[in-house]
Amino acid sequence: MDKTKKLKTGNENSIIIIILAALLVVVIAIVGVYVGKNNKGIASFDGGKVTKNEYKIYYQMFSSYLQMYGYQASEIPYEILLKAAQDKMILSDAKKAGVTLTDEDKASLDEIFNDESYIDYFKQSGYDIDNLKELYSNDYIVSNYIEKLASEASNEDIENYIKGKYSEGEEINMDEWDTSHILFSFTDSSTGSTMTDEQKAELKTKAEDVLKRALAGEDFAELAKEFSDDSTKENGGKYAMYDDGNTVEQYVEAVKKLKDGEICAELVETAYGYHIIKLNAKNEGGRVNSESERKEYVNTLFENIEQTRNLVVDKDAFKAFVMELAPDTYTSVDQISGGPDDPATDTTNTNNSTDTTQVVDGGDQTVTVEE
């Protein structure tokens, strides 16, 4: 028996390498066609574009929200495209300014995307995990950039912005009242319904007992954490108040009568319930430090950014892709608007209900009440 091992010749090795290389080229070509197809821009702007992959995840994320808020079906695709484009424009500015993820942001991302329950939900919902993680990451960076601009804005800019929201001759109060409160809500936490008169009477007795403890010198923040029925309880009841028409009148009137450090001697009744109110300090002109006012001001800096960055939509490609994403919603491209200058036929108003919800803003906190 010939025990001599047969060795591959140099030519044979070369042929194998050539075959493998050819196969790899085919695989790359196939993947490239798929990725390239979905990375093709459906909209472009100075310095960037919105790809199909990017738009798809935005559509998955936001279409139901816009529908819930009553947007016409014809408007929804373009509104989502506009948001995707604006986000990328702002993201570009953020990166140029050196804004990155914080350690807290990274921890939050890890917590979400290392959790199998989240991953399973994302997959079941049809999300591309890598694209979704990038969207989350970019959103953190944009938020950090907005906070940076808000903190760096001058008091003069904020004051001018606030004054610009009022009519000429209308009285403007720029003061801030640093208050704390404990709310005993008229909404029954177990049923979500408004309390009966009998329940309100029992609630008032409870509130008066807590008021006595506060007036006797017990720690107000601790009492708020234990008894208050709104989100401020986590921060010891802290509530920045402005006399800007967005805080209920009874609350404003009670606060204005207090001295720094004083607790209102009586319960204050509003549409929300019974309040125990403390004025920590009145800050003259302090409204310019309002986080909400500053962020609103920054948002105005980005108004019409799509125009200044020359957003151009490939309407044919955009509408065709929307048809792919939502074939059950759109049966014709004529039902899809390609922008302000491109009206669409739409008989599918997504929300015909009457909304009686009023959001009342008391500075940096918002409270929702039913009229």
Order of secondary-structure elements: HEEHHHHHHEHHEHEEHHEHEE
Query: What number is the mean pLDDT?
Result: 85
DSSP strand content? 5-15%
Major sheet summary line: 4 strands, antiparallel
Give the strand order of the largest sheet, numbering strands 1, 2, ... along the chain: 4-3-6-5
Instruction: Report Rg.
Output: 29 Å
Structural class: alpha+beta
Q: Can you walk me through this structure?
A:
The protein has 371 residues and is an alpha+beta fold. The chain contains 13 helices and 9 strands. It has a domain at 181-284: Chitinase A, domain 3 (Roll), CATH 3.10.50.40. It has a 4-stranded antiparallel beta sheet with strand order 4-3-6-5, with helices on both faces. A hairpin with a 4-residue loop joins strand 8 (357-361) and strand 9 (366-370). Helix 2 crosses helix 3 (76-96), helix 3 (76-96) packs across helix 6 (129-152) and helix 6 (129-152) crosses helix 11. The N and C termini lie far apart (99 Å).
